[in-house]
Specification:
The complex is a heterodimer of chains A (549) and B (315). With 549 residues, chain A is mostly helical. Chain A has 22 helices and no strands. By secondary structure, chain B is α/β, with parallel strands linked by helices. Classes of the chains: A mainly alpha (549), B alpha/beta (315).
């Protein structure tokens, strides 16, 4: 279920219509159910993972703060986890069960239940682990304060990173290790599990982890309400592709009553329209151009592919990924505003960045700031000398690359951005002032955009062979063809006006400048967005790229 | 100005813009579009065809059917049989069997018009299988009316998006013809058409690879069954022609025809013409993977005339 599908909007309508009639606690319950339904549409079995993450961090946060849960609540949580595991992961044939029960055919109903131990090992393991944890908890609470706090934090980190590592990286590391062994002449068994990646696991895991860390750092008070915490973890507008919200920003919005206002509704509408435009018009129309070029590179069909055409393909991917991801974030923020929530701004005109540091303050801001606060600064940041700073940057960007996907090309993408950041810092390049030095500013934007595009080449390529082939074409087969000219015009057609508006409103984050524009300009902008969405929607719909992360 | 006043003005501007576009589409785009103009001529042409002396053949299909040359078909038929033939094409681009069902229903059966033969052409192994409806806009504006909504939703348009698209297309010509507005606007970009053709070809290959990795759903033939059952009730014969796409690999086996297609067609007393392997249609006679070029069209038309005569008249 995607934002670009009617199905989603019907679900949203079913939530929105009764939402503002309900009292605060009922609103939260409705949102929690809607969030689980939304996620269940992807693959209901993975709801169990969200449940596990939620329970671990809920108990972890309280444990770090030294708050004990009553035994009755612990038993309820254990029951919830066990029941969740049984219902979601034990190969229950729901259709058969319903048919059997309706027809009072108990043979059929029994046949629909799990038939072997292999079907129920997850519920059994989850129950055993949770019961064991329940028995250990009093001992953990009996530890000295600093040991207790660290222990709960470590349990939370190990569990979260363990789940993320297993589902996202297990096969990748097995394959890579086998490659390494074979490179040294050893025989290696490639026992990959073919694990399906749960949608949005990187996003909600990072969000849940930040809660426990923030409680540990004393930046956030833990919540005692499991329902509120569960909603904080799985709030559906941003569940599968962010923005990654911090507990101190989102949790109070869950816990406290929310209010509605015409301004918020209007801002929400503007964000949803811009988001839909970016996704179904910009990203989805750029996708065939990028796919055609990268498909030719992957197939080695490059004899008549000029450097300029390849560059157009890379530009197209740059706008595709920007439209796709920032479009999702924009819609997420928009519908959250309709529900009385304020999610953080995740993108701020990233292709108008002048330096790499500026770029990362504009691109996927919630992840950049997460990595800065929980990785870069703890690693030493920029206050312990140049060498520590560069080392911290490289490690942060490398792990940031790996966060995006289990592939060496993502690692290389992260390393590349780390190197670019270090190079700019070593060279001491300062951000040009747009109004004082317009020519220098334009040059810096142009150069930074192309550095970013070079990074997208690594990001989009299936393997390093594609990257080297592309670099070879860019350097040896350069000629400006008519097809490249047309490609540029097509990109300008879809992205041009959006970028003019972004340029005009760049001085302030958010939509304030747009709302201050004369009413006819604002109206014309909305007419443009709606017409483009209706008329120039792509005939081929593409899934949001960041769902895979 | 108050925030409320500002919102009202923006809303009025928005409504005025939509009304202007709807008016412009109806006044300028529809009369100026050869496709849309052709669709509007179908009722009259269907009456004209059936009013002609037998034999009368209606060719219903998409751009592949549009490559048949009616005048040449008539003259070849005359040359073979000594009889005159009435033939006309009812072509909707980007359409498939589900659309053709409604076109035949709208222009012939609902109007109590019965040609002697309806020719339907397909060109790959999924050609007569159930598939998502294409071009919902044209379907809503031209090939169906309000009476058809429920059977259409029950049988052919099952996704929420398409149902919403159909209802909006029924109400707004601009919405229904938005693909044409899009194409016209994009064609203003110099070199767009060849660029898009090349891009789509490479991109299609990429998409195709992804689709091949996904599990293929089992083929079903509900629309085909409905079509032949309705034809039986109307007493009209349909001839399904399996057309040969561009022969990419010399000597390669033609695409498979699902056994259920043949059973459905023959059980209902309909005709099937197998032209999957025409030696005379070589790769150079195609402009792309399925469409014949100007040299290929007469070759195919002549063969079709002879085959239709052979298969459709009792000897």
């Amino acid at each position: 279920m995607n934002y670009n599908q009617l199905q989603f909007w019907l679900l949203f309508l079913a939530v929105f219509v009764p939402y503002w009639w309900l009292p605060h606690r009922k609103q939260n319950q409705l949102l929690l159910v809607a969030s689980y339904v939304f996620y269940g549409f992807w693959d209901y079995r993975f709801l169990f993972l969200i449940l596990v993450t939620t329970v671990i961090d809920f108990i972890g946060g309280l444990g770090v703060a030294g708050a004990r849960l009553p035994r009755a609540q612990l038993i309820r949580l254990t029951g919830l986890l066990a029941a969740g595991a049984f219902l979601l992961t034990s190969n229950l044939d729901y259709g058969g069960l319903l048919t059997g029960l309706r027809a009072s055919d108990y043979g059929t109903a029994l046949g629909a239940l799990p038939q072997s131990l292999a079907d129920v090992w997850i519920p059994i393991a989850a129950t055993v682990a949770m019961v064991a944890y329940m028995f250990i908890l009093p001992r953990l609470h009996g530890l000295a304060e600093s040991t207790r706090r660290k222990t709960f934090l470590v349990i939370s980190m190990v569990a979260n990173l363990g789940i993320l590592g297993f589902f996202k990286y297990f096969d990748f590391f097995v394959e890579s290790f086998a490659d390494l062994l074979e490179a040294f002449g050893f025989q290696a068994s490639r026992s990959v599990l073919g694990i399906v990646l749960p949608a949005g696991i990187s996003f909600y895991t990072f969000q849940a982890m930040s809660y426990t860390i923030d409680v540990y750092r004393g930046k956030t008070e833990p919540t005692r309400n499991f329902g509120d915490f569960a909603l904080f973890v799985c709030f559906f507008p941003h569940l599968v592709a962010g923005p990654i919200m911090r507990a101190h920003t989102l949790l109070p919005q869950v816990v406290n009553p929310r209010s509605r206002s015409a301004t918020e509704f209007r801002e929400g509408l503007a964000l949803v329209l811009i988001g839909l435009f970016k996704k179904v018009v910009l990203a989805d129309n750029m996708a065939p151009i990028a796919n055609s070029v990268f498909n030719r590179l992957a197939n080695g069909d490059t004899a008549d592919l000029s450097g300029s055409e390849l560059l157009v393909g890379i530009y197209a991917f740059a706008f595709q990924i920007y439209g796709d991801f920032s479009g999702y974030s924009s819609i997420a923020r928009g519908i959250s505003k309709w529900l009385g929530f304020d999610l953080v701004i995740n993108f701020h005109n990233p292709y108008l960045a002048v330096t790499p540091s500026d770029f990362w303050k504009r691109w996927h801001i919630s992840l950049s700031s997460w990595l800065r606060d929980y990785l870069y600064i703890p690693l030493g940041g920029n206050r312990q000398g140049r060498l520590i700073e560069y080392r911290s940057l490289m490690i942060t960007m490398l792990l940031g690359g790996l966060w995006h996907g289990a592939s060496w090309t993502f690692v290389a993408w992260g390393l590349y951005h780390g190197l670019v950041l270090c190079a700019y810092r070593i060279a001491g390049v300062r951000d040009a002032d747009r109004s004082a030095q317009p020519a220098r500013w334009a040059m810096q934007v142009f150069f930074m955009f192309h550095l970013t595009c070079l990074g997208w080449l690594l990001f989009r390529a299936d393997n390093f062979g594609v990257v080297t082939a592309a670099l070879e074409i860019l350097t040896t087969q350069w000629s400006f063809t008519a097809a490249a000219g047309t490609g540029l015009l097509v990109i300008a057609f879809y992205a041009g006006l959006l970028f003019v508006v972004e340029w005009l409103t760049d001085a302030e984050k958010g939509l304030h400048r747009l709302f201050r524009a004369p009413w006819f300009l604002q109206g014309a902008w909305y007419v443009y967005l709606v017409l483009m969405i209706v008329v120039f929607y792509s005939r081929q719909s593409y899934e949001f790229i960041y769902f895979q992360f | 100005m108050t925030a409320r006043g500002r919102t009202v003005r923006i809303a009025l501007l928005f409504i005025a813009a939509l009304a202007l576009i709807e008016w412009g589409t109806r006044m300028a785009l529809v009369p100026g579009s050869s496709d849309l103009d052709r669709y509007r001529s179908f009722p009259e042409r269907a009456r004209g065809l059936v009013a002609a002396p037998a034999p009368r053949i209606a060719m219903v299909g998409n751009s592949v059917t549009d490559r048949v040359l009616p005048k040449l078909l008539q003259s070849e038929w005359h040359a073979v049989t000594g009889e005159s033939l009435a033939v006309d094409k009812f072509v909707a681009y980007y359409s498939n069997l589900a659309t053709w069902y409604w076109m035949i229903d709208q222009y012939f059966w609902s109007a109590d018009l019965e040609p002697d033969l309806i020719v339907v052409t397909y060109y790959d192994e999924v050609g007569l299988a159930d598939a998502p409806m294409m071009e919902v806009g044209a379907l809503a504006q031209f090939f169906t009316d309000s009476r058809d909504v429920w059977p259409l939703f029950a049988n052919d348009i099952k996704s929420l998006e398409q149902r919403a698209g159909y209802l909006l297309s029924s109400a707004s010509t601009a919405f229904a013809t938005r693909d044409r507005i899009r194409d016209r606007a994009l064609n203003l970009i110099p070199g767009y058409r060849p660029f898009a053709t090349a891009t789509n070809a490479h991109s299609y290959e990429y998409e195709h690879k992804i689709r091949m990795r996904a599990a293929k759903p089992a083929q079903t033939f509900h629309t085909l069954r409905r079509l032949v059952t309705r034809a039986q009730q109307q007493g009209v014969r349909i001839c399904f022609v399996a057309f040969q796409p561009r022969p990419v690999t010399p000597g390669a086996a033609p695409y498979a025809i699902h056994p259920e297609i043949m059973t459905t067609i023959t059980d209902a007393g309909m005709l099937h013409l197998d032209l999957r392997d025409m030696d005379e249609l070589t790769a150079d006679l195609y402009q792309d993977n399925v469409h014949l070029n100007a040299r290929g069209q007469p070759i195919y038309t002549r063969r079709l005339a002879r085959e239709l005569d052979r298969i459709s008249r009792p000897r």
